[in-house]
């Protein structure tokens, strides 16, 4: 097993996740099997209870693990399926060590950060790195480890020390370190001092970078690269310039152009790769090149209004954004997202800030399609309902994800069936079970919030006589689909018959056929909702089908997509 660690200096949010994913992809283009681990130094056990506005999106895995959004990047780029154990947090490590101490595993010794915590980190990495993550079912050959945060932060110190020890534990031929740093441009001059200071800090902790990836808003000058190499004690070929590009999908190609793999394969003593594996990797690289080049040549634009409640931090909807990007590339369209804060669409905003209200509605009305993603809490709900009503009445393509499905159902119950004031028990716990459109799932813990939702991958069966459904056709006419879930509430079973009588059909149900999973409005350009989160399984080369439907319908080419011959969905897990 070869290990490649990606750390960061100077500032957080510098792009370690994209660089780690891109490095992994380049190893895959050599025909190697790749896995990824993300280390998050925070004390939380997982990302499930953290606000999206504070930490970005919570990504959900097949096994129900609620993890950091970077694991979503790994899955999308590398086409792999990770587990909750691939996300290491301080909380998990300390819980693991304390539990062992309580069992008496340390035989009365004083339990300390060094060696007990650091050893537990190393053992965790070695154990998880061996888990098969792709369709071959074989043990991975390369493990990419991303160390979250910034080197020098007090909370990441045990992990840095563990990695320092780890390089000797596995051997120098099996360990490489890429440090991502920032080269700011001040008054037109590229400044190297922050990078020099970051590398100095890293060396003082016992880690020596094999490569330095320099993030900069513009291409690095040769003089800058040479200066960083000289003052940071590395060769010029070990300094990788990662400047801003059109999209993050160009980053792997940017790294390849700078011969990153030539250095890493030499450092890690990777040779004698079978020809069949090399051929497979070359096909992947060709697909990736074709995808990025065709995206660059797209001139027609499709505009999607994303009506959400966390729009002030775009990372809150990272998987949603990526799914829209994947679908727009498949449709050969340039994607434009209009970010609409749902509270701005409400009557209260009309009274307090008329210009913001009109601007928000202008974005909605000018969009080719409307997307209402997942979320929690009552804030902004009336604005989402208004957007769903506008889409339904004006034949505008609409996709509701999780909360977005529930929003569409509430709108129909209120404005078509005529049950005024109908809502969700999430927003009004005292709501009547006879009139609430959305109710608590009976099998979900209503007190403990951490890890108690309906989580992970579950089967959704299409109902009989639903062959007319555009969404089912997008899934290749499959009888069932497997998608990832994260919810506590469901459509009220008592109102199903009334809702379906008004034209909104529940075309997908869970394994028991009691829980509603997919809605679709007949005789509409595209009006669908999913209780699951299809964005979690979207891949760069294989877009999520509900998102593909929304983008294609919004671009006016849904029929062309449905007639294409590459909608093969296996419908199995």
- How helix-rich are the residues, as a percent range? 25-40%
Q: Kindly provide the radius of gyration, computed on alpha-carbon positions and rounded to a whole number of angstroms.
A: 25 Å
Most strands sheet: 9 strands, mixed
Task: Please report the number of helical segments.
Answer: 20
Q: Classify the beta-strand content into a percent band.
A: 15-25%
CA-to-CA gap between the ends?
Answer: 27 Å
Commentary on this structure:
- The protein is an alpha/beta fold and 573 residues long.
- 38% of the residues lie in helices and 20% in strands.
- The chain has 20 helices and 22 strands.
- A hairpin with a 5-residue loop joins strand 3 and strand 4.
- Helix 1 (16-28) packs parallel to helix 3 and helix 15 (381-393) crosses helix 16.
- The longest helix has 22 residues, at 275-296.
- The relative contact order is 0.11.
Short note summarizing the structure:
The chain is α/β, with parallel strands linked by helices and 573 residues long. It contains 20 helices and 22 strands.
Helices and strands in order, then pairings?
Layout: E1 2-8, H1 16-28, E2 34-40, H2 52-55, E3 58-60, E4 66-68, H3 69-78, E5 87-89, H4 90-103, H5 113-129, E6 142-147, H6 157-170, E7 175-182, E8 185-186, E9 189-190, H7 193-204, E10 211-216, H8 222-231, E11 239-243, H9 251-257, H10 260-267, H11 275-296, E12 301-308, H12 318-330, E13 334-341, H13 347-352, H14 354-366, E14 369-372, H15 381-393, E15 398-401, H16 403-417, E16 438-440, E17 454-462, H17 470-474, E18 480-487, E19 489-491, H18 496-501, E20 504-509, E21 516-521, E22 527-530, H19 545-555, H20 558-563
Parallel strand pairs: 1-6, 1-7, 2-5, 2-6, 7-10, 10-11, 12-13, 12-14, 14-15, 15-22
Antiparallel strand pairs: 3-4, 8-9, 16-19, 17-18, 17-20, 20-21, 21-22
Helix pairs in contact: 1-3, 1-9, 4-5, 5-6, 12-19, 15-16
């Amino acid at each position: 097993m070869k290990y490649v660690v990606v750390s960061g200096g100077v500032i957080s949010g510098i792009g370690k996740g994209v660089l780690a994913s891109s490095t992994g992809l380049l190893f895959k283009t050599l025909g190697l099997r790749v896995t990824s681990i993300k280390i998050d130094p925070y004390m939380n056990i997982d990302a499930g209870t953290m606000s999206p506005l504070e930490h970005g999106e919570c990504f959900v895995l097949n096994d129900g693990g609620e993890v950091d959004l970077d694991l979503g990047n790994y899955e999308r780029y590398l086409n792999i399926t990770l587990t909750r154990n691939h996300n290491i947090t301080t909380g998990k490590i300390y819980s693991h060590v304390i539990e062992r101490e309580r069992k008496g595993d340390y035989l009365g010794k004083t339990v300390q950060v060094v060696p007990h915590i650091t050893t537990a980190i190393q053992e965790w990495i070695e154990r998880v790195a061996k888990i098969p993550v792709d369709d071959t079912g074989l043990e991975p050959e390369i493990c990419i480890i991303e160390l979250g945060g910034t080197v020098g932060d007090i909370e990441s110190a045990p992990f840095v020390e563990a990695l320092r020890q780890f390089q000797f534990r596995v051997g120098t031929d099996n360990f490489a370190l890429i440090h991502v740093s920032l080269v700011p441009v001040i008054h037109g001059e590229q400044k190297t001092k922050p990078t020099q200071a970051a590398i100095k800090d890293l060396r003082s902790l016992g880690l020596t970078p094999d490569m330095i990836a320099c993030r900069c808003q513009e291409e690095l000058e040769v003089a800058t690269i040479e200066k960083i190499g000289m003052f940071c004690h590395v060769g010029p070929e070990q300094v990788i310039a990662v400047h801003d590009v059109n999209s993050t999908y160009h980053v792997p190609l940017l790294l390849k152009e700078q011969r990153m793999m030539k250095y890493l394969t030499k450092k890690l003593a990777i040779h004698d790769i079978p020809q069949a594996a090399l051929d497979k990797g070359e096909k992947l690289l060709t697909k990736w090149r074709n995808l990025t080049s065709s995206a660059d040549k797209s001139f027609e634009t499709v505009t999607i209004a994303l009506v959400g409640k966390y729009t002030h931090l775009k990372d809150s909807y990272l998987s949603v954004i990526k799914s829209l990007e994947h679908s727009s590339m498949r449709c050969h369209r340039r994607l434009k997202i209009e970010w609409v804060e749902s509270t701005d669409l409400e009557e209260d905003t009309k009274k307090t800030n008329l210009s913001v209200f009109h601007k928000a509605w202008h974005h909605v009305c000018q969009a080719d399609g409307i997307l209402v993603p997942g979320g929690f809490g009552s804030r902004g709900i009336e604005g989402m309902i208004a957007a769903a009503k506008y889409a339904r009445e004006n034949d505008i393509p609409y996709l509701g994800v999780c909360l977005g499905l529930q929003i569409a159902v509430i709108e129909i119950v209120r404005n078509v069936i005529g049950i005024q004031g109908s809502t969700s028990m999430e927003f009004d716990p005292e709501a009547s079970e006879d009139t609430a459109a959305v109710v608590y799932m009976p099998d979900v813990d209503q007190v403990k919030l951490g890890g108690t939702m309906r989580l992970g991958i579950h089967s959704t069966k299409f109902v009989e006589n639903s062959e007319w459904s555009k969404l089912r056709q997008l899934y290749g006419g499959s009888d069932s689909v497997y998608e990832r879930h994260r919810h506590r509430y469901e459509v009220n079973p008592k109102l199903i018959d009334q809702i379906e009588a008004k034209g909104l059909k529940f075309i997908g149900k869970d394994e028991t056929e009691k829980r509603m999973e997919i809605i679709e409005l007949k005789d509409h350009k595209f009006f669908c909702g999913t209780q699951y989160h299809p964005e979690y399984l979207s891949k760069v080369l294989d877009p999520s089908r509900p998102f593909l439907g929304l983008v294609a319908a919004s671009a006016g080419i849904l029929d062309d997509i449905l007639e294409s011959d590459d909608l093969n969905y296996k419908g199995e897990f």
